[in-house]
Specification:
The structure holds two protein chains of two kinds. Helices cover 53% and strands 10% of the residues of chain A. By secondary structure, chain A is mainly alpha-helical. Chain A has one domain (2-71). Chain A starts with a helix and ends in a 6-residue tail after the last strand. Chain B folds into four domains: 5-119, Nucleic acid-binding proteins (OB fold (Dihydrolipoamide Acetyltransferase, E2P), Beta Barrel), CATH 2.40.50.140; 130-282, Rossmann fold (3-Layer(aba) Sandwich), CATH 3.40.50; 288-329; 372-424, no CATH class. The chains are: A mainly alpha, B alpha/beta.
C-alpha cells in the first residue's frame, strides 16, 4: 500500500492503476471493504497525478556520446 | 582542327603523292585513343533511354550493363562512386534512362556510355524498387507484422528523440510537448539525418538512446525533403535498429505522401514530427479532466458499492425472514395443535385426579380412627402416647389416657377384669 501511493510511481503506472481501480470499483462484485480501500488508493493516485501535471517547466536534455546528458537549449522559432 | 594529332586521321586531306607507296600505319592504341577523343569531345553528356540487359556489379563496386531497344544495344558502365548512390540495382529488362558520356574503352575498342545517373520509371523508380525489395525482405522476417507493433505508453515521463539538433523536427516536437505535457522530460540524441551513411548513424543514435534506459518511447524522424533526403529512413540499418529497439518507436518523417521503411517497422507511423509528439504525450488539459472525472467516478462507484451492500443485506434479511417464516409456520401450527392437545389432556388429567382424589378422601375417611371411635371404640395410650394394646400393658394402678371420638379422658387401671368383659373390650 505504501509502495502504491508512493510518489516514486510513474505517472504512467499511476494512470494504469487508476484504470484498474475504476474497472474494479465499477464492477458489480466488489465488496464494500475492498471498494473503500480502492477509493482511498484511487484518490491518492489522482492527487499525486495532479501534482505531477502541475510541473510546468519542460526539461530538455541531450544525450552525449559519453552516455551523460546535458541540458539542451533549442531555439523555438 | 589539324592541330590535334588525334584527328589527323580524319582530316580528309588528300593522300600523299603515289611515288613511294609507303602508307602511314597507326597503332591500334593510337586509333582507339583518337576515336575516344573524338567521341568525348564531340558528344555532349546525354540521356539515353532503353531496357537494362545483363546488369552485373564487380567486386570493386562498378556496374556493367547493356542498354537496348528492339534493334540495338550500347555497353554501359557506372563506376562505384555513382553506383553506390543508386538505391537499387535495376532489374533485367527494366526500362531506365541513363545520363552519361559516350567514350571508348580503349582496351577493347568498344564504345560505351559512362553513366552518372540511372533512373527508372520517373525519378523514383529505382527508389521504389529498393524500397520494395527491402520491404519484402523485412516482411519475410516478420518484422512488419502487425502483432510486432507495441502499444505506446499513455503518459511517458521521458520521451527520446533521435534527429538532428539543428533541424525543424526537434523544435516542432518540443513545442508540442511543452504545450500538451510540460511535465515530460525530453532527451535528444543528435544525429545526421541525410547523406551517405546517415541510416547507420541514425541507427546508432537510436541504439544509444535506447541503451541509456531513460526513455519509455522514442521518436525517430526529420522534417520533409526529397526522396533522396529521406532515403536514410528507407535503408536497412535503421529498419533493423527500430525493430530491435527495446522501447516503442514512432517514426516521424516529414513526408506525408510516401511511407518509408522506418514507418513500416516502427510501432507507430506519424506523418510529421509534430504529429509524433501529439501521439506520444497526452494532452495535459484532457488528462486533468480525466483525473477529476476519476474522482467523481470513485465516489459514484463507492456509493454504488454501499448501496449494493445495503440492498444485499436487505435482501438477505428478507430471505432470512421468509426462511424463518417458512420453517416456523408448521412448527407454530404444531405447537398450537400440541398445546391444544396438552391443554385438553391436562384438563382431563386434572379431572381424573380430582375424581381419584375424592375417592381417596372417601377411603381415607373410612380408614380414619376417628370414624372407628365414632362407632364407640376408644384408644388407650400411656403418657408417652404409646397405644396400649394388651392387658399386660395396664398393670393395676397405672394411669393412662383414653381417646374417645370427641376428646380424651384420664383413666386408671383397676387391674384385669372378668374374662368375658376383657374379650368384649
Amino acid at each position: 500500500m505504501a509502495e502504491i501511493s508512493s510518489s516514486e510511481l510513474s505517472l504512467e503506472a499511476r494512470l494504469r492503476r487508476l484504470e484498474e481501480i475504476l474497472a474494479r470499483m465499477e464492477s458489480d462484485q466488489v465488496p464494500l471493504e475492498e471498494a473503500l480501500n480502492l477509493f482511498e488508493e484511487g484518490v491518492a493516485h489522482v492527487r499525486e497525478a495532479e501534482r505531477v501535471l502541475a510541473a510546468a517547466e519542460l526539461r530538455v536534455e541531450e544525450l552525449l556520446a559519453s552516455g551523460r546528458t546535458r541540458p539542451l537549449d533549442v531555439d523555438e522559432s | 582542327m589539324s592541330d590535334d594529332p588525334n584527328l589527323e586521321l580524319f582530316d580528309g586531306a588528300p593522300p600523299p603523292p603515289p611515288a613511294p607507296p609507303r602508307p602511314k600505319v597507326w597503332s591500334v592504341s593510337q586509333v582507339n585513343r583518337a576515336v575516344r577523343g573524338l567521341l568525348e569531345s564531340s558528344v555532349e553528356p546525354l540521356w539515353v533511354g532503353g531496357e537494362v540487359a545483363g546488369w552485373t556489379r564487380s567486386r570493386a563496386g562498378h556496374c556493367y550493363f547493356g542498354l537496348k531497344d528492339d534493334r540495338a544495344q550500347i555497353r554501359c558502365v557506372i563506376f562505384s562512386r555513382e553506383a553506390s548512390l543508386l538505391p537499387a540495382d535495376p532489374e533485367e529488362g527494366m526500362q531506365v534512362r541513363v545520363f552519361g558520356e559516350l567514350t571508348l574503352y580503349e582496351a577493347k575498342g568498344e564504345y560505351q556510355l559512362v553513366a552518372r545517373r540511372v533512373e527508372a520509371e520517373g525519378a523514383e523508380g529505382l527508389w521504389r524498387l529498393a524500397f520494395e525489395r527491402l520491404r519484402a525482405k523485412l516482411d519475410a522476417e516478420g518484422l512488419l507484422a502487425p502483432e510486432k507493433k507495441r502499444r505506446l505508453p499513455k503518459a511517458p515521463a521521458c520521451v527520446g528523440v533521435v534527429t538532428s539538433r539543428d533541424g525543424a523536427a526537434i523544435r516542432d516536437i518540443l513545442s508540442v510537448v511543452a504545450r500538451r505535457a510540460p511535465w515530460t522530460r525530453v532527451v535528444l540524441r543528435n544525429t545526421r539525418v541525410q547523406g551517405e551513411g546517415a541510416s547507420l548513424e541514425i541507427a546508432r543514435a537510436l541504439e544509444d538512446l535506447a541503451a541509456s534506459g531513460m526513455c519509455e518511447v522514442i521518436i525517430v524522424g526529420r522534417g520533409g525533403g526529397s526522396i533522396e533526403d529521406l532515403w536514410a529512413f528507407n535503408e536497412e540499418p535503421l529498419a533493423r535498429a527500430i525493430a530491435a529497439c527495446p522501447v516503442p518507436v514512432i517514426s516521424a518523417v516529414g513526408h506525408e505522401i510516401d511511407v518509408t521503411i522506418a514507418d513500416l517497422v516502427a510501432d507507430l507511423r506519424a506523418p510529421t514530427p509534430s504529429a509524433a509528439a501529439e501521439a506520444v504525450v497526452p494532452d495535459g488539459a484532457v488528462l486533468l479532466e480525466t483525473l477529476r472525472r476519476a474522482n467523481a467516478r470513485f465516489g459514484r462507484a463507492l456509493a454504488g458499492a454501499v448501496e449494493r451492500r445495503r440492498s444485499a443485506v436487505d435482501q438477505r434479511a428478507r430471505r432470512l425472514e421468509r426462511a424463518v417464516e417458512r420453517r416456523f409456520v408448521p412448527a407454530r401450527q404444531a405447537v398450537d395443535r400440541a398445546s391444544g392437545r396438552l391443554e385438553r389432556s391436562a384438563r382431563s388429567r386434572v379431572e381424573r385426579a380430582r375424581g381419584a382424589l375424592s375417592g381417596l378422601v372417601g377411603r381415607l375417611d373410612a380408614l380414619s380412627p376417628l370414624a372407628t371411635l365414632g362407632r364407640g371404640y376408644a384408644v388407650a395410650r400411656d403418657a408417652d402416647g404409646h397405644v396400649l394394646r394388651s392387658v399386660a400393658d395396664l398393670p393395676t394402678g397405672m394411669r393412662f389416657r383414653l381417646r374417645l371420638a370427641d376428646g380424651t379422658v384420664a383413666a386408671e387401671s383397676l387391674g384385669p377384669a372378668a374374662r368375658e368383659e376383657t374379650q368384649r373390650g
